[in-house]
Amino acid sequence: MENDHKPRDCYQILHDPEIQGPGPDGSKRPVYRFNGGSSPTTPADPRLKIPNYRPGVPFLSRKLAFKLPVPQYNYDPQLSIGEAPTRAIVVQGLSELTTMGTVSRHYSTFGPIDQIHMELHPETGTFLGICRIEFRDIPAGRGSEYAKAAVERANEIQIDYRRPTVAFDSTGSRSKRLATQLLEKKAAEAKASLNSKNGRSKTHDDYDNDNETDHNDYSNTAPLPNAPYHLKRKIGQSAFIFVSHLDVPPENVHLSEVRRFFRKTDAAAYRIDPKSGYYVIYRNRDTARRAYERNKVCHISGYRAELDFYPFGFPTSETADDRDYTDNSESNGATSNGYGHHDSHSSFPPAPNSAAPPAPIQHSQFQARAHKSLDPVRDITQDLRKRLRTELRERWVAQQIYRTVKRLQAERKSQASADSLVAPTAAAPALNGLSNGDRPETPTVLDSIVRLPSLPSFRKKVSEKRRRKLRPANLDELADQSEDDDSATDIETDKEVPVKRIKEEPEYKTRAGSLIDFSSSDEDTDEEVPTDVQMADAEDEKISYVGHEAWEPRPEVSIVGPDDDLDLEKDLDGIQTYVRDTEDYDLLRRVISDIHEKKGRSYRLENAADVAALSWLMKDEKARTELPSGGIRCERLTDDVKDQSYFVGATVKSVKPAYIKHSKGCAKAQGFYAVSDLEKSEYLPHKRRRNTQFAGNNLAMHSLENNGIDMDNGSSMLPPEQVMMERSVSADVREKRETNGEDKDDYLMVSRTERAANRKYAADINAQKSLAPESDILKYNQLLMRKKKVRFARSAIHNWGLYAMEPISMNEMIIEYVGEMIRQQVADFREIRYVKSGIGSSYLFRIDESTVIDATKRGGIARFINHCCTPNCTAKIIKVGKEKRIVIYALTDIAANEELTYDYKFERELNSDERIPCLCGSKGCKGYLN
Amino acid sequence: MEVAFSRDLLASFKPSRSLRFHAPHSHITSLDFDDTGNYLLSSGTDESLQLYDAQQGTSSKSLYSKKYGCTLVRFAHSSTNCVYASTKEDDTIRYLSLHDNQFIRYFRGHKRAVTSIQMAPVGDMMYSAGRDHTVRAWDIRSPNCHALLDILAPMSIGVDPSGNVLAVACDYIKQVALYDVRNLDSSPFATFKPNCGTSMDLSRIEFSNDGKSLLLGCKGPRHYVLNAFSGAIDALLEGHTPFATDKFSTSGFSGFTPDGRYVYSGSANNSVYLWDLNDASSASLLHPFASLEYPQNSPTIVEFNPRKMLFATADTGVTLWLPESV
Q1: Which of A435, A579, B202, B206 has the fewest CB atoms within 10 Å around its CB?
Q2: Which fold has domain A88-193?
Q3: Where do the WD repeat units fall (chain B) (predicted)?
Q4: Residue contact A19–B142, C-beta within 8 A
Q5: What CATH number matches the domain at B194-326, 1.10.10.10, 3.40.50.720, 2.130.10.10, 2.60.40.2950?
Q6: Maximum distance among all alpha carbons in chain B?
Q7: pLDDT tens for each residue of B87-143
Q8: Residues with Cβ < 8 Å from A602, sequence gap 6 or more?
Q9: Is A83 on the interface with B (CB under 8 A)?
């Protein structure tokens, strides 16, 4: 390259038209100077001409710089070299009580936190005060910034009065290291302290040293006051403040003055002793201390007194008693301290000079508690002693006294006729001081009541309150054993007792409410005692009902179920419900063994085969004469020829033949004749009331004579001959029932295909809808497609009901409960209005908290479905599209012509006066709708 | 937050960003920071120009010069314009607008490859040296060559901080000639012939920012620091490993730091070496006080940012070095 150098002229431009414009002669061509021009001179160093040659002649681009800024690059995973800067920090020096939440809250001021790891003690699990915080990397790459900020501004954070130190900790090794260091340090400390105490564990002396500062002031170098014995006993170990008689003379200054002075200090008691001074006793050592600290010198009535504070009262072991004002723990602590110091408080009163107990008395509460924990046995025995005392008092002593009283009463009764009001002076002192079961002057009033001619006052209500004035339950047991039963019953036979109270078999007692109290008059209500005695006696036999807080029907109305009424004899099914296990069976056997033959019905059991055959026969007959909903047939045990049998839990017993012989030839010719309900009930299923007890929803129909069974509307009284005829009729029923079973499967198949077809139809409709969204014509209720064939008709339960026309299988949708959709407030308003206007039934059905469907005036036929406690349907709320709808589903397989029922699920209102009685008459009837 | 130059600071530099935006296996032939220090341009054998944001440490733009090829790219005083030498077709220097990728001007003149382009510190002058034994002066506002200097084999040129002196280094005759920029057609006012060994193998000549020193960066084992006025050797810098051969001329791997006290140089052992000139007494052999290693990086080109505490090295990708956080 160097070889081919051909020297050429150098030039320098003089005028450049591009920059300077056209030349003076107008030419647009550059003008050059070659080789230095005509007179080339050796140029000098131009820099020397510059005065103070210095770089940075104005606006030099690359100027001299001694300091330069450092750009900061954020971590970019692709471009950055090296690892991402750490976004985790370790915080050290926190309090052990600090929670993760607190730490998180404080440090999230720097940035969002990803996770926090607290270092815990491996054995105790306590927080060591070291925790590692990792910040989130959101937005990307900022995590390290948060960590950096946290480290820089570490001193801004103060948690639980501590300023923790912060450092980076990328891998977590640092926090672990710190934790192990801390643990080692702690272990070393513990060991050191252990060794220094010659290997003993921390004793009360150590505690003493710990808490010395608190209680040094009250070291009580002052001698204890010379209090009288009873006062010392009273004060015991309690803390008290003492005002000496030398300062404030007790004869001049009343205790109330002292009391006034200390009134704000929450003292327990004030005592004055003329010889020593005033004692202000406290329950709590701390309050006493505070009171003392507040004023160590007091001015009472012009006298200046220096107060003395004795935090531990008179520390002797003998004063330890229940009467101690302060905690038992304290007293125990004080006495059981230091096992070798008993000699100082062996006897009381302590002599003044030895009153200041040696150092261990200075122990703090903590020490006292520590002592307590050292002697649990003592505490337990004390506790037991106390308990024993109270128990004895309550249970045994009271009973004994009561017994005595009763005995005295009985004696007095026997002398009642002879004497007039005799003051039972003997009994009185014995009763004195009893905490419970006080019966002052009981015998006198009782006597008076017995002898006076009693005006029967029919007191309907026996309030529950009254009932509870009985003796406490534990004494009831005594009552059983008492010999007063005879006398009690004697009293009772004087009065009229309702027939239904059968005394021989106490278990079958009816409810207490049936008791009619024939005491003298209403004014006698004040004397609860006599009635109590009566009631108590009556209650004796009703032990099983004491404490029954479960749901009960109202007491004034006797609702006797078939289980309660002993006069009802149940049929085989009924008896079988009694027997639930082998024990029951044995008992039953025993009972049955002496049953006597009944007229017209003798089922004598010869042998086992007969038994089986017989039972089958009974059941078969029953099945053929009843509708499918089963039940237990009961018969009344009376001497009537006509057996009064009725069904409980069954819908109908039998169906009268459709054909009635009319004398005139045909029904048309016969003319109009009224058909009684009873007869109607035979061929009209809805006339046969299911629940005869509440028939007509009218409680007044209850009459106590016949146990509330309304004969008119309920029991169908068919002569036995007719039963035979029923058989032929009911054979059809039987057949039908059998065939129903086969139909079911087919029906299921059909319904499935139907449902599929419906779904397709629905999909089509929806597709159409989407094409023409405005059209209202295609508004279509999907649920209508799934509706089963049902019809409404008169119902045996109540008025109208809904019956299935076709068999419905389980879990099938039957019908939708259609009505007006209204808000909760509107529903409330309407409810009141309907009740006012006389609509007794409620057709408001709740969808959700704020919406209700009202089918009272407008709606579908689902409103006719009645309530039953053992329903065959249930109501569900499903969402169709966006709306919620109420839909009735079948709970069980429903046969054709069966009434649909579901559980209304009213709110249970046990206390309400207007409970709606349930007319369903099913076996599991709860009795009330709500 | 500004930090002052110090040996500790310089020794603490660490590679912080690795920007590999040139085509793989293509070498970068030149690096240049703009006047503000915010941008960095690199040209590569893949005929592309890469613009980097030095403030963020990310890539900003890619520009291609597939028709002419590019090398020796230099920012103009405006951060959006640059000049570069063509490698294909002919050897014109082209003035490119970076933001709209349009050529502004061509500077035709050189008949052979351009070996060095330098911008004057102030003003619009630009100087270029080529293998056609010429050093040309251009005003970037005009396509006309403003001055021509005929000199044998100029390898590298440098402009002093005041803009008055042009130093031309001729490796062949081992001399450095100083010219007055206004009188390039005249003879040089000073000629330095440093007493060096066999061949200087010059790669770069640079004035320090304080104007007192002149660095002769060589591909050989030794760099020379001369007194800018007298031409006396102030220091001989040794200790680095010289690069083996160069297939292509680069813009240099040695230079002064902006404070003029330290000299850096890339080394074939994947390190950057640093010398402190205060250690030097006259004509003494100076050894580096620190070496910054980064094994993944062969610092064939090293360039210090004039306005920020960062420098860039490049071989196939650009590495940005930052000092360790204080």
Answers
A1: A435
A2: Alpha-Beta Plaits (3.30.70)
A3: 21-62, 107-142, 256-285
A4: yes
A5: 2.130.10.10
A6: 52
A7: 988 999 999 999 999 999 999 999 999 999 999 988 899 999 999 999 999 999 999
A8: none
A9: no
